[in-house]
Predict the 3D structure of the following.
Amino acid sequence: MTAVEPDPDTSTESAEATCATCGVPVETDEWHPAATTTTDDGTVEIRSFCGRSCRDRWRERRE
Ligand SMILES: [Zn+2]
């Protein structure tokens, strides 16, 4: 019989994000530019960016 023990590491969430402008993976463990956007139904979404220039470009596109 094997004792079933809860795996302590299973709940580690992989906070994966991609740059909203160019689509490259963003290391969310490290500092990165981010912006919030509100959808039509009032949901606030967080956008991550690989760099400031991508955030600026994203902002320009939305205005
Ligand atoms: Zn980017």
